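Exercise 3.2. Students should predict the tertiary structure of the chain below and write it as structure tokens, then compare their answer with the key that follows.

Predict this chain's 3D structure.
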Amino acid sequence: MLTSLKHFNELLLNNEYIYCKVIKRKLASLIFHSLGWKAEGEIPSHIKKYVLLAAPHTSNWDFFYGRLFFIMKGIPLKFFIKQEWYVFPLNYLFKALGAIPVNRSKNKNLTDEIAAVFNDYDELAIMIPPEGTRSYNPNWKKGFYYISKKAKVPIVLGYIDFENKIGGLGPVFNITDNPEKDIESIKDFYRGIKGKFPDQGIL
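Answer key:
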């Protein structure tokens, strides 16, 4: 009897969790589309873990529209913030949004720490803005490349196109042993996609 009751409770909690996820996705979709935005692209069903690039990154509004888009798509998204920011009461908000605190001290290898997080999940997308700043930056940081390499996961090219009001998922990119060439190939995809402030984007 106790076993049956335990199974029933687990089933109830699981169904409640699934129901909440569906409601969350529907609500995000309603807000996203009511603001005049469209969605395009899908993640291939066999890809469960990946680095998700978010570019061009020119405004704090990128996070707002991007988060709506990724929730709507049901993407198991995480991103990293400085450990110093992850304090009460903001830590509850950050956790709900998918934030993971990291220690950026000099004695820590941050790419190793982030790559290791993939081992803790069956499905995971780690979002990284490759420019590393909202200002124009022709020299992208290579952290996303090394995280992809160390974790042995592909890169998915995500974008928020303010000119056409489109949230999108581009191609899946499998890195080579040539980071400079790979980054230029990725930049080629993003050229023509306009951020909120185009002059600060990828030129």
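Discussion points: The longest strand covers residues 166-173. Residues 8-13 have pLDDT under 50 and may be disordered.
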